[in-house]
Specification:
By secondary structure, the protein is of the alpha/beta class. It has 10 helices and 28 strands. The longest helix is centred in the first third of the chain and has 16 residues. The protein is globular and about 80 Å long.
């Protein structure tokens, strides 16, 4: 089974755990047990990837995303997952066309093979991917151009579009599509047998490749990628789904939630506290998610979410948390925490001419070999072991060792078998993420 997971969005509605490069799908809130029998938490993207592999261990998974999310994806899923990187945002048709061309031109998937496209962040049970597998088979073996998943609605939602069954003039079954309706209209649609449109569909690669030639002028991955910024901004739903007459709909009746707000996210949490948090006996329907190394205490609260991270602290009534976005839009600060392909970093302190960062490298991982033109750096190793390479000179490092790099100096650090933690002090008047030049690793 070939699957494209659409991973978009920036972190607004789940602030302070999410930010411009850490979207909701990377927040680790779902408890699990690792291979060593230890309890840990996984993210939405890890959970959904695991569910896919449970249903089909041989599934080929490609994630369509922006460049800013690539490091987090590699960090959480490893280096084997396919990634189709959007150079910029051009709406869903361009993203899906690019990912389809990536499967065909880069991954070598044949034009007559099917693929299922679905969002990366729904909260579902394993039966969802059994339905996805049925969708794949219907597209692979059936005679319809497009096969959609319709989700059996559990209430008249104003947040979703609807797929409505209609009879054509010749008596054949057809479908109509609506945007987000009023609550009253939603109930009317449900009474008529309508389903939620969850944005899940399947097709043969040749179908979207032909649509790309028609609507974008090319189906070549190289051409789409190099000319991506000039492609038409069009929605896949509008440009393809709503125009297609040769389509079928399969119904999914299992659990399905869109965890887009703190209110809905806490409904899916299996435990009231993640991190160092405490609730007294007078708390009711209170959730704490704490990524800071200090305790959070809640007393006598009801229907409240408390979230603490290096980005900030949120204390909100759960219903009111849905209206967080305009307030977060007014907060202007640099990213304070991010996951990278090699590990993660957390900003500890920022001043006018310096920044202090805690850097954690995963076992046997390394940074790119790079330099900075406008800042000096000092590394102090505090845990683990490994080695540094500075202007081609390699040396082992252990806790207590200090390594100094002047501006323009090429450098990297490589973690040993147990990983490596260091404190990085950046010194300069122009400290920016763009001040970085990468080089080939010395032999």
């Amino acid at each position: 089974m070939n699957i494209i997971l659409l991973s978009g969005g920036s972190g607004k509605r789940l602030w302070p755990l999410s930010n411009d490069i850490r979207s909701k799908q990377f927040i680790k809130i779902f408890p699990t047990t690792n291979e060593a029998g230890e309890k840990e938490h996984i993210s939405m993207v890890q959970r959904i990837y695991g569910q896919i592999k449970t249903v089909d261990p041989d599934a080929t998974v490609t994630i369509a995303t922006s460049k800013s999310q690539v490091s987090a994806i590699h960090n959480q899923l490893g280096m084997d997952v396919g990634i189709s990187v959007e150079p910029c945002r051009r709406d869903t048709f361009a993203a899906i066309a690019l990912a389809t061309a990536y499967l065909h031109d880069v991954q070598g998937v044949g034009e007559n093979e099917a693929v299922v496209v679905c969002p990366v962040d729904p909260y579902v049970d394993d039966s969802y991917f059994e339905c996805v597998n049925e969708l794949y088979k219907a597209a692979e073996n059936g005679d319809k151009n497009l096969v959609l998943m319709g989700i059996a609605p559990t209430y008249p939602s104003e947040k979703y579009g609807y797929i409505k069954p209609v009879k054509a003039a010749d008596g054949t079954q057809g479908y109509a599509f609506t945007e987000k309706p009023t609550k009253e209209k939603a109930q009317e649609y449900i009474d008529q047998g309508a389903l939620w449109n969850g944005g899940v569909f399947a097709y043969k690669l040749s179908y979207v490749l032909d649509k790309a030639k028609e609507l974008l002028g090319t189906s070549s991955y190289d051409d789409l990628f190099s000319g991506y910024s000039s492609l038409k901004k069009i929605s896949f739903d509008y440009a393809v789904v709503e125009q297609e007459t040769s389509l079928d709909v399969l119904t999914y009746s299992g659990s399905w939630k869109d965890l887009g707000t703190w209110n809905t996210l806490t409904e899916a949490m299996e435990e009231p506290v993640i991190g160092d948090g405490r609730l007294n006996e007078n708390c009711s329907n209170v959730h704490i998610v704490n990524e800071l190394g200090i305790p959070v205490l809640a007393m006598g609260l009801k229907d409240v979410v408390i979230s603490a991270s290096p980005e900030g602290i949120l204390v909100s009534d759960k219903e009111q948390s849905s209206y967080i976005k305009p307030f977060v839009d007014d907060i202007d600060q640099q990213v304070m925490f991010a996951e990278k392909s090699w590990g993660s970093y957390r900003v500890l302190d920022v001043s006018e001419a310096s920044m202090t960062v805690k850097v954690t490298l995963n076992p046997r991982n390394k940074m790119n070999y790079h330099s900075h033109q406008h800042r000096d750096e000092v590394w102090t190793v505090v845990d683990g072991s490994g080695k540094t390479i500075v202007d081609g000179m390699e040396q082992p490092v252990k806790p207590g060792d200090v390594v100094t790099m002047s501006a323009g100096c090429k450098h990297t650090v490589i973690a040993g078998d147990e990983g490596l933690v260091l404190i990085e002090v950046q010194l300069g008047t122009e400290i920016t993420v763009s001040d970085k030049q990468k080089f080939e690793m010395p032999v």
